[in-house]
Specification:
The chain has 300 residues and is α/β, with parallel strands linked by helices. The protein has seven helices and 15 strands. It is globular, with a radius of gyration of 18 Å.
Length: 300
């Protein structure tokens, strides 16, 4: 299809799990440029047929896993020319039914903006969301890639530096009326917050210290009690362990060391490993491949 939107949302009705995700099948996924240190266009070009097959299988397994969990899934089409559109986490922030569309830093990803804008206008017309807005011109912000909702603390964590503007955090706070904790990302490898940190449903926060400046590490520790803060080691960080999707007591991730798996299981979480290593050639993993549409404030 030439359009980046579907004529209607394809929904798998959730059964008992309050989660709704936007995903994009990798119909035109490829690693053809280099905008982060993970991207390997030469590796892709040297074996594109096999890697394309791997990508399709990995994505289908992930999609089917969410289906088995009863998660509601919306699908947006991927037109040619926007290979990274599969990473729907970067499309926007969606909270309380209000959509704040991304403004991408790199020109390679900027063409995605119009397709996602069209799609969310479609959802608005269907009553799925109530508003679709944009960041002011000049601010860069890459959706959930650099903005994560912490339901336990009722705050947003916002990353800035490599991709998103620091000023975007203040705008998010004003737009949604929720406290936003801005964290500066130090490493060009950990260019987004969602590959560096993950707040979990019971209050724990996973993070890779090496991704953050010393000041940001202090800020994290000021907001998260020591018994809830879980520092991941380099091996897990480089396997994108923080780039997970947490639904209730289920954690879906690509790979996890036995040490960290035991820690999380002791906290009451069930770990589901769905390797998506081929997407790692573009610098993304499980969270990158999904966008939460169901984030809501605690209105009690």
């Amino acid at each position: 299809m030439s359009s980046g939107i579907t004529s209607s949302s394809k929904i798998v009705k959730g059964k008992g799990l309050p989660a709704r995700l936007l995903m994009c099948a990798p119909d035109n996924f490829a690693v053809i440029y280099n905008i982060n240190e993970w991207m390997q266009p030469q590796t892709w070009l040297s074996n594109s047929a096999e890697l394309k097959k791997n990508v399709e299988q990995e994505w289908q397994r992930l999609y089917q896993t969410f289906q088995s969990l009863g998660v509601a899934i919306d699908l947006v089409n991927q037109p040619p020319g926007v290979p990274d559109m599969v990473f729907t986490a970067n499309a926007a922030i969606v909270f309380d039914g209000r959509v704040l569309l991304s403004r991408f830093l790199h020109k390679e990803r900027q063409p995605e903006e119009k397709y996602f804008a069209q799609y969310f206008e479609l959802l608005k017309g269907q009553g799925v969301v109530v508003a679709v807005d944009e960041f002011p011109f000049g601010l860069k912000q890459e959706g959930v890639g650099d903005c994560l909702w912490d339901s336990k603390r009722q705050i947003f964590w916002a990353g800035y530096g490599p991709r998103s503007s620091k000023e975007a955090a203040s705008y998010i706070q004003k737009y949604y009326g929720k406290e936003v904790i801005a964290l500066e990302l130090l490493s060009s490898l950990f260019y987004h917050l969602d590959i560096s940190l993950s707040p979990l449903s019971s209050g724990e926060v996973l993070y890779y210290p090496g991704a953050f400046t010393e000041q940001s590490q202090r800020i994290i520790k000021e907001h998260v009690p020591a018994h809830e803060l879980i520092a991941v080691e380099k091996e897990d960080a480089f396997n994108f362990v923080c780039n997970l999707v947490n639904i209730g007591d289920k954690i879906v991730l690509s790979r996890c060391s036995n040490k960290l798996k035991n820690i999380l299981q002791e906290r009451g979480y069930s770990i589901i490993e769905i390797p998506v290593d081929t997407f790692g050639l573009a610098g993304g993993s499980i969270c990158c491949l999904t966008l939460r549409l169901d984030w809501q404030s605690n209105k009690k």
